[in-house]
Write a structure and sequence with these properties.
Elements (H helix, E strand, L loop, with lengths): L1 E2 L2 E2 L14 H14 L8 E2 L2 H8 L3 H13 L3 E4 L3 E4 L5 H4 L18 H4 L27 H12 L4 H7 L8 H15 L8 E4 L2 H12 L5 E6 L3 H9 L3 E8 L2 E2 L1 H7 L5 E4 L13 H14 L2 E5 L24 E6 L11 E4 L5 H10 L6 H12 L2 H27 L4 E3 L7 E6 L4 H10 L5 E2 L12 E5 L5 H19 L1
Parallel strand pairs: 7-8, 7-10, 10-11, 11-12
Antiparallel strand pairs: 1-2, 3-5, 4-5, 6-13, 8-9, 12-13, 14-15, 15-17, 16-17
Length: about 500
């Protein structure tokens, strides 16, 4: 069907009951229509929002399908004009029109639900930092020389000590690092545990995969924050969970609305100390509500504590795990945000009754983490470098957030409102009458990383906003980035 703004694809039929994801169904339908010449080259397609409304699906479903179609050359975007059917379809794709042609089946046949739930792509800047990439620490301030000396010391070991470092280690991790982690999270986060409850992982995401393997059966109902972390959403969905999207208010996940949707979840995934992406902090009363629900529903709480060390006005809020008296909380931590992402080390703190099962689950995925890296982190913590580094980073992130707020006041007035974040390395810029997806694409063309808030939503439609990270860029880079972002947003309005 055609409207003034382009073809709306209203004739496309999607089956919500199918095992094939909606975005994949939409991709196939549009691709087939293009190859069959039902959608001709140069045809303008209606906006993703209009198509989503016509089909009764989330806008993210349409965006995911269109991103794939664009990447494969079926669609092309024209800045300020819209999305069009590509003028030239690649020759190898034209052959698909021949229905009699024999096409080889994909290796392995039909993919799994876990495979189908994977995010469509993972973006990377391959070492190049761009304002305002979220979730990235101040790598320019990391003590590289000190770290190098600690690494060299580990590699200088002789005899049996070196042989042990090169062999397979314990699946739960190096005992010395587990002891250091237990001391640290106990003092800094109020986590109650002994080293035997700590399991070292290859980052926080890996820890969630280990937990999902132990705690979730296919079809289990899982509360998930809305908006929330897309990679965590994909991990849980890939494990077979049926996700129940629970809105986030100013106190974090809304327990009352969650109960109204599903009173007996199997698992509850939360980022209570610094909700991602909205940045709110869950108060103690809400934390106690969650614990009571977990007790009544016989549910597990997975507490993702990804960057709670960095509070800008007050001390870090103690973890939910420290309030848990019934062993219902699995605590996830990571060194990616406090040291550097390439380290790929994180940790789980699990109830004593689950230690053996979690350790077996962790052993199935890579056996163990590199022993020398674990030893270096243990040295870094034991010798006091870790606490000094965190103190330095807190001061740096306060300064960088102030630089962002000042730059926003100077350059983004009338375009976006940026409020200070209580914690972490990113904040939200609320847009004024600008579509956040269009704003994000325009920012990318200006070499600015500004993720749209809509990308973190599965069902909800929140006000348009951009996620702005300030941790990895200097105050000068922030000022330059804000000017470039302002020009990009003004271009969207024109």
């Amino acid at each position: 069907m055609k409207e003034a703004g382009g073809y709306t694809l209203g004739a496309v039929s999607l089956d919500a009951r199918s095992a094939v994801p909606l975005h994949q169904q939409l991709y196939e339908s549009v691709r087939s229509a293009i190859l069959a010449r039902q959608l001709r080259a140069g045809t303008r397609v209606a906006s993703t929002r209009s198509i989503a409304q016509d089909l009764g699906v989330s806008r993210n479903t349409v965006l995911t399908a269109f991103d794939q179609l664009t990447a494969e050359g079926y669609l092309e975007g024209k800045t300020g004009s819209g999305t069009y059917v590509a003028g030239a379809i690649p020759d190898d794709l034209l052959s698909v029109r021949n229905r009699n042609a024999v096409r080889p089946a994909p290796a392995g046949g039909r993919i799994s639900r876990r495979g189908a739930a994977l995010p469509p792509k993972i973006t990377t800047t391959e070492g190049r930092r761009r304002p305002f990439e979220p979730g990235l620490p101040a790598l320019d301030l990391f003590p590289v020389r000190l770290w190098g000396r600690l690494v060299a010391r580990q590699w200088s070991k002789q005899g049996a000590a070196m042989i042990e470092s090169l062999a397979y280690g314990e699946p739960a991790g190096l005992r010395r690092l587990r002891e250091a982690v237990a001391r640290y999270v106990g003092a800094a986060r109020g986590v109650r545990c002994d080293p035997g409850q700590v399991i070292i992982t290859n980052g926080l995401q890996h820890g969630l995969e280990v937990a999902a393997r132990v705690l979730i059966d296919p079809g289990d109902l899982v509360w998930f924050e809305e908006p929330g972390f897309p990679a965590a959403r994909a991990t849980l969905a890939g494990a077979g969970a049926r996700l129940v999207y629970v809105p986030v208010d100013r106190d974090g996940i809304d327990v009352a609305q969650g109960i109204a949707k599903c009173a007996t979840p199997r698992l509850i995934y939360v980022t209570p100390s610094h909700q991602f992406p909205l940045g709110v902090t869950m108060p103690v009363t809400r934390r106690l509500q969650l614990l009571e629900l977990a007790r009544c529903a016989d549910a597990w709480i997975v507490e993702d504590d990804y960057d709670s060390e960095y509070r800008h006005a007050t001390r870090p809020v103690p973890a939910i795990q420290g309030l848990d008296t019934r062993g219902r909380v699995i605590y996830l931590g990571t060194f990616s945000k406090v040291l550097f992402p390439a380290l790929r080390l994180g940790y789980l703190v699990v109830p004593p009754a689950l230690v053996e099962t979690f350790t077996r689950s962790r052993a199935l995925s890579g056996r163990t983490s590199p022993a020398i890296d674990q030893a270096v982190v243990a040295d870094f913590i034991e010798e006091g470098h870790f606490e000094r580094h965190i103190r330095r980073m807190r001061a740096a992130y306060r300064e960088r957030q102030e630089a962002l707020l000042d730059a926003a006041a100077r350059h983004l007035t009338g375009l976006a409102t940026v409020h200070p974040s209580e914690a972490g390395m990113q904040t939200i810029g609320w847009l004024h009458g600008i579509d956040d997806d269009a704003a994000s694409r325009a920012a990318a063309e200006a070499n600015i990383e500004a993720a749209p808030l809509s990308a973190f939503c599965a069902e909800a439609r929140l006000p348009d906003a951009l996620l702005l990270g300030f941790g990895a860029v200097t105050p000068r880079q922030i000022r330059i980035g804000a000017e470039a972002l302002a020009r990009a947003l003004e271009g969207v309005l024109r």
